[in-house]
Amino acid sequence: MTNKEKLLNAIGLAIRANQVVYGQRLLEKITKDQVYVVIIADDMGTTQKKKLLNKASFYKIEVLDELISKPELNKLLNKDKEFEISAIGITDKNLANLIKSYE
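^ 50S ribosomal protein L7, sequence as received from the core. Prediction below:
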């Protein structure tokens, strides 16, 4: 199994454990220091990406970038094309460490 497959499996585990946030909740959890790692899709918009990177940097949260695409992320989250997710946050420290190990 490749590291990419292991990464996708670990993210899927975090989703099933309800330890993933996205959208406005992601930003709220970052400011409350309740996110341990942020995963950004490699095809996220430049402006959004910069804002999220700045916020994560300010709160000293590690960001994993260029590891997964929007379609892969949305497939894991079972989201349709009308509501695409570009970034997620992992709210469990152990799952975050597992995901970081497959970087």
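The helical segments are 3-16, 24-31, 46-58, 70-77, 93-101.
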